[in-house]
Amino acid sequence: MNKYLPEKLQPMLLPIKLDSLGLFFINFLIPIVAHKNFEANGWQMGLLFSLQAIGTGCSALLFSKKVNRWTHRSHLILLGSIVKAVAYVLLYLAIINTQYELMVAATFCLGFGSGIFWLVWQTCFAQLSDFKHRAEIFGEASRQMGLGVMFGSIAAFTLLSLAEDYNQPEWIGYMVILAFSVSSSIAAVLSFKAVSAMSSQDAQEEKEIPVPIKMTTIAIFLFGMIFVGQLSGSLVAPFLEVYLLDHLKITSIEDLSIAYIPGGIISMIVAPKLGRFADNINPALFLGGASIIGATTTYVMLQVTSIWHISALFVIDASVITSAGLVLAKLISEVAGENKGTAFGLQGFVSNFGAISGPLIGGFFWQTQGATGPLMFSIFTEVFLAFCCIAILLPALLRSKHFAELQRSSSGS
Fold first, then answer.
1. Is 8 contained in some domain?
2. Per residue in 40-56, pLDDT tens?
3. CA 266/CA 259 separation, integer angstroms
């Protein structure tokens, strides 16, 4: 157990793990099912992949202010997990019955439920952790997500492989999606109890905070970076899988998973260490370096032809994305003051607006410039972000009295 993790937050670790079991597998599966089962073109595939982001953005808009108050959080996190459990059932029915419209509804609900769940736990973790170790504390939550992804992915791909080897019908191979629905239902009960316990201890100390978040240079830059970064990442995600299927001549989903699973799991499991490292580096320099590394790994992925090389590169890329996310969450939680729920809700809206735009823009580049079009545009945006981190964010942080005081207190403790 992480020594800096407050005792109040420890009961949330298991629900986070259970809620994350299907996180990687479903995001991995949706573009492939859209491409193979529904024969979706670039626009349709991008639209389908955007629906989760639309759902998450809607939940952020609806509930960000409510999350500021402890008394609302337990019921909200319960709602999020239940919606997610229902979404898994709808997704399973959509796949086995090849119903595109039902898959549209399922992916929207999946994003909506996930958005509420993440909004609540992020706010709780930010409010109950100190700034000096906040990236590491967020990293501990990411580690639980990584463990959930690992267990869920092993179960999912094992069942898919067995069903394929023994020529079983598709409905058997995808039954693991129903298991994810059960795990989300259990997470609903456990998270409700955990947050209710926190609320009973902390609700009496809270008060309504009417002061809006100040849109300083730092705040505007952070939300802008979130939008551009999410746009860049999301326009790659659905198209990189299809590109690799064609470029590497892969015919099996299980083979393609070799490229993704190690990176996704390792990056989240080592997230506390990544967060500890990030806590000791100037955030602007860290984010700028992360953008350059991300652009480089994406470019190299286009040059190699080995699935194992892709896998190694994706470990680096996923680790960079995870650690950059921890730093951004840490900075945003501090910019927000006491309005952490509102800030994370705004982050969710901005992030998912980027995630909505990304696949659509990626679909445009796919249609007009071919399979590498979305990936090259992503590389350009990451280099642009690195430049902005050094030219804009770094001077702003150095000028900020608030962050200077935080830096001094962190160094002295």
1. no
2. 666 666 667 677 778 88
3. 12
